[in-house]
Amino acid sequence: MQVITENKLVPQLRFSKFEVNWNSDRLVNLSERVIVGLATSVTEYYTDEEIDSVPIIRNQNIKDGYFDGTKMLYLTKDFSDKHPNKRVKKQDVITVHTGSNVGLTCVVPDDFDNAQTFTTLIVTTKKNILCPNFLKDTLSSYKGKNQALKLVVGGGKGNLNTSDFKIYPLFFPSLTEQQKIASFLSSVDDKLQQLTIKKELLEEYKKGIMQQIFSQELRFKDDNGNNYPDWEEKRLGEISSKDSSNISANKIEENFGEYVLYGASGVLKKIDFYREENPYISIVKDGAGVGRVLMCEPYSSVLGTLDMIKPKGSNNLYFIYILLQRIYFERYTVGSTIPHIYFKDYSLEKIKVPSLEEQKKIAKFLSSLDSKIDLVSTQIENTKPFKKGLLQQMFV
Length: 396
Known about the structure:
The protein is an alpha+beta fold. It is built from nine helices and 23 strands. It folds into three domains: 19-172, DNA methylase specificity domains (Adenine-n6-DNA-methyltransferase TaqI, Chain A, domain 2); 173-231 and 354-396, Helix Hairpins (Orthogonal Bundle), CATH 1.10.287.1120; 232-352, Adenine-n6-DNA-methyltransferase TaqI, Chain A, domain 2, CATH 3.90.220.20. A four-stranded antiparallel sheet has the order 4-11-8-9. Strands 5-7-6-10 form a four-stranded mixed sheet. Strands 16-22-19-20 form a four-stranded antiparallel sheet. Helix 2 packs across helix 3 and helix 5 packs antiparallel against helix 9 (356-393).
């Protein structure tokens, strides 16, 4: 690739051997059709039957630049046949035109040819002029999203008007260069999608394993191959204790340092002091995230809206963290305006507890799964800004 510095109608970052200025035109002139998909609620026509039915692409299936076909719903064929002009073709570009995900765009995969869509705009490009994946990447770029948002009308969640979308201004190079750009960015999308699927599979596997462990269908054995003692029923308060914090967010606004401070969503910032020398569990006791638990590193602190949970007696910290993730905290929530939970209430939760040695084995196994999930999450978070940077630099 080469970096362009001259003031031309070309992107900042460009593949070598392409030197001609890009063209510009309106979307309607580069497309065979720009229409809106099904615009009214169709839930009453959903069916669980995949045979003799038609898949419907909803907002949930349109991610940031790619199609997610893992959770499809289907329409009865009778209803779908009444709206043949609302069906998509393979390689159509679809954009969410209403709701919180307005502007998200993807290309219809070949195996969803003739599907229906709901609350989307459908674009069938003139393939000899405009590459579908290039259009998708253009609309997904920083400049493309900003341009789309300018076309959103109405209050609330807004609506991307079809007439305005038709005159969307596009900048595009030769078809060969479009295809080169689209192919390169598709490889990045593929990596993101594979990582996302891998994370979901690991999370599902962990969920299934935890169910087997805590129902005691799956038991660990000691180093000699013998069974551990039977699990005992206890109260949460018998194996853990609670400490409070009095740190206010307002009082540490100008405080910066090297020690982590946790808030309701995780790491809030770093400050110049710490309250806890050892690892512990934080739990949100106030607000929208009430009941959210997090493993916290040593030499750190939490805001006053969080409590700290620590092991009592011979019990494993990570095992207690896993137990807390399984508690249905809604049953202990009080207050309608600002929800709140109290340790004195949920500490009475009845739980089954294995011996310390089996706790350690369970914790070691599940923490290794968490480490794998965290690694994939980090890879996803590192790939997203890389793609974002490319989208900013590779389009006019």
